[in-house]
Amino acid sequence: MFLFTIILCVFCTITNAASISSGTCSVPNDQQGLVRDIQNKLENWASWQGKPDPSILIALSLTKDHNLNVIMHLVRQIKETAGTEMTSGKVALYVLALRSACQNPADVNTPEKHVNLVQVLEEKTREEIKHIHTTGTPKTTYYQLALDTLALCIEKSPELERAATILAKAALTNSFQFLGHCSVDTAALASLALFCVYEGRISSQQSKLTATIREALAQTTEQILHKQQTNGLLGNIYSTGLAMQALSVTSEFYSDNAWNCPKTLNEVLSNIPEGAFSTPVAASQILPSLVGKTYLDVSNVTCTSETVTVRYTVINKLIGPYFEYSTTVKVPKGSVLFAVLEAAKQRNTKEFSFQTEETSWGPMVTSISGLQANANDKTYWQFLSGETPLQQGVASYKPKDNEEIVAVFSRY
To answer: Residue 64 and residue 69: Cα distance in Å, rounded?
Structure first.
């Protein structure tokens, strides 16, 4: 089971019939550098943050040329921190993040634990709904309930109908109107969640619920557009990212001239050099819109099942105690060597544990099986294909099927 826990996102394709990039509302080629700046910021934040941010993983997974090493790092962090102590919205983000990275949130495995995050989400959503029935408000917020509904929709959970019904009724009773600056964010996320349901994940026989959802979508869309500023922003600069995602998929619920998408996009782009998206939350919410995607595209990710088999051996005959360990792993076709090391580590942490150090050339392996390279002793870990030294690093070299990779503790 662990053989396929390595991130598959680099092997994914995403399709979306209704994306922001359609028509004229797309980032011009001469301004693509601004989009890359946002992506670089997110990758840098992900690399040094002690705690994982699932929103960053979702955003990066929806881009084409993401850094695989960063994606793998985030997936590993999210799996290690997944649990039952989180709020419902946090669990929903974890579910969406793992699904965006071709991982199964219902089967989260680490050497220390196994967690079914979909079951956890279902239980926490029931708690939110029970609290609404008892007190009139969610246990947390309607924003988190909207996240819950979206994640349940992506996972096609049997709890979806109940959650969608409650969320739609909240939208129709203007429950989001009293949330101040958060009203646009909540309405936008509710729009995405309800549109996910409206697209067909509730059976056609449930026409009553479909009608309710249609009314709710008209209401949330109107609420977003009501907050449209003269410069094109929707609410404020920070709520615009989610609002753009929502409006890009709900166009049937507003007139053609109700929203000028290119105007909004131009205002967003003009704010990037000013540092408007200088926090992980703001950057992760705007990036999908800039690459013509939405959170709904998480459900459109398809992952290859093709794999390659690699024989991996680590050898130390230089400094006692000596050792030699071998294992055979399968990784997705096209994986870099780093994925092989991760798969071996998942199989046997004691023998194949490793550490890396970031360099200008990418990550460099500095320790395997607890044996650390030392500049004073002029020792390092050398990687070979059979008996031929590799000319690329672990984040660049892509092993072939049935290839033998050897890591030898050596001196220079």
So the answer is: 14
